[in-house]
Design brief:
3-stranded mixed β-sheet
Length: 85
């Protein structure tokens, strides 16, 4: 499955400010940024992201996924601390 397809699915399902999907072989990494994650537990955030992808997960199209969800404020801080110097 194309990274852009996953980004599209997530963007349509959740009101995200940003979504970034990268792929390394069969492993996908998803970074989702949106106010919808504010005050939501990490487990719930993961469920929110998995929900629109469930069809692809159950079919085996997507199986190895790493999810990182941030509010816009958290994402700004994350970028500052994790950007290469």
């Amino acid at each position: 499955m194309e990274c852009k397809e996953i980004e599209q699915l997530l963007s349509e399902a959740l009101s995200l400010e940003e979504v970034h999907v990268s792929q390394d072989g069969t492993h996908y990494k998803i970074v989702a940024v949106g106010e919808c994650f504010d005050g939501v537990s990490r487990v719930k955030q993961q469920q929110m992201i998995y929900a629109p992808l469930m069809e692809q997960v159950t079919s085996g199209t997507l199986h190895a996924i790493t999810i990182n969800a941030f509010t816009p404020t958290q994402w700004k801080r994350e970028k500052i601390f994790n950007m290469p110097g």
